[in-house]
Every structure is written in structure tokens, then in C-alpha cells.
Amino acid sequence: MSYKVEITEKAQEEVRQAIRWIARQSPKKAALWHFEFLEKTDGLESLPARCPLAPESKTHGREIRHLIFGKYRILFLIEDETVYVLRVRHQPQKVLTPYDELEDDSLPD
Q: Rounded to an integer, what distance in angstroms lies between the CA atom of residue 56 and that of residue 34?
């Protein structure tokens, strides 16, 4: 089975922030990071459930999974035949609590 991968606006903004931060050190590394991020998310088209449940899964009441990507965690949700990339978090950041915004309005209920 092949899944469609959608990156939410919130996750896209976090990707842009990461690229800007990395580009301050090296524009070349920022471009490479972005390319590798897209490869990782494209890889979620097949067998996304291979990734473990994220700690946020317990606090948000949904099966939120994460894919480790270098120093980042890609948080995502599988709904029917779509994988929604919800957030992109730097690993040292705290786990999201129920009070933190996880999703945006583009997700199905």
C-alpha cells in the first residue's frame, strides 16, 4: 500500500526555521538538510507504521509516530491512506504537552 504524505503548515514553518538556522552556518548544509528531509518524508509513503509511537501519542490521545532524522524528530499521524507530518522538532526540545499545539485545522477529525 502506498500512502500520500501531506506536510501541515505548522511543520512547513518549522522546516523553514530549521533551514534558516542551518543556513547561518552553511547555506550548502541547509540545502542538503532540506533535500534529506524531503527524502525522509517521501519514505513515509510506504510502511509509515514501521516508525515507533512518539511520547506525544500518550498525551494527545492519538497514534502519533515519529521518525528520527539526524537531530530532529518528524512527528506524524496516519489517517486512512494519508500520512500527515504534524511537527518537526529538534531532539533537545521538550516533548509536546497537551497544551502545546500539535495539529492544525487541515487535519481530519
A: 24
